[in-house]
Design a protein that fits this description.
Largest sheet: 5 strands, antiparallel
Number of domains: 1
Helix content: 10-25%
Strand order of the largest sheet: 2-1-5-6-11
Shape: elongated
Distance between the termini: 27 Å
Structural class: mainly beta
Length: 141
């Protein structure tokens, strides 16, 4: 149930702050992380091993779709909705330094780590036009 509450909070924050563009924002997840995206934006996700640069991918685990006046929340995912994206690059994050030190024991250790990531460009959202007239969550106008 905590995931559902966080989705409600995200949708109300997006719509309450006046961020109601003509394109619909939505929430979806890759792996164990959720992302709020709109067409034309870039996002950095964890490494997608099977994807190569310039591949077109379809992500169908959509959790929430919101339009100007309505928000649709999936139980657990919204059926028929999908995110279309293009893989822009496969890369590495900035280096994180791990430094361990124990005083008076002459012990210190320094190591670096770079986490792999994937940059996606969101090209479009499809399938949300076919929703029924009665959404799960009605946002006041």
């Amino acid at each position: 149930m905590p995931r559902f509450r966080s989705l409600l909070r995200c949708s109300w924050l997006l719509l309450a702050r006046g961020r109601t563009p003509t394109s619909s924002p939505l929430s979806w997840w890759i792996g164990s992380r959720q992302y709020i995206v709109m067409p034309g934006r870039y996002i950095y996700t964890q490494r997608l091993k099977d994807a190569n640069v310039n591949d077109q991918i379809i992500l169908n685990k959509v959790l929430l779709v919101s339009t100007r006046d309505k928000a649709y929340i999936g139980m657990p995912v919204v059926t028929n909705a999908a995110v279309h994206a293009i893989v822009e690059e496969q890369g590495l994050d900035d280096k994180v330094i791990v430094f361990k030190f124990k005083k008076k024991k002459k012990y210190q250790r320094k190591a670096g780590h770079r986490q792999p990531n994937t940059r996606l460009r969101i090209t479009g959202i499809s399938g949300y036009e076919e929703f029924p007239a009665d959404p799960i969550l009605q946002v006041p106008a």
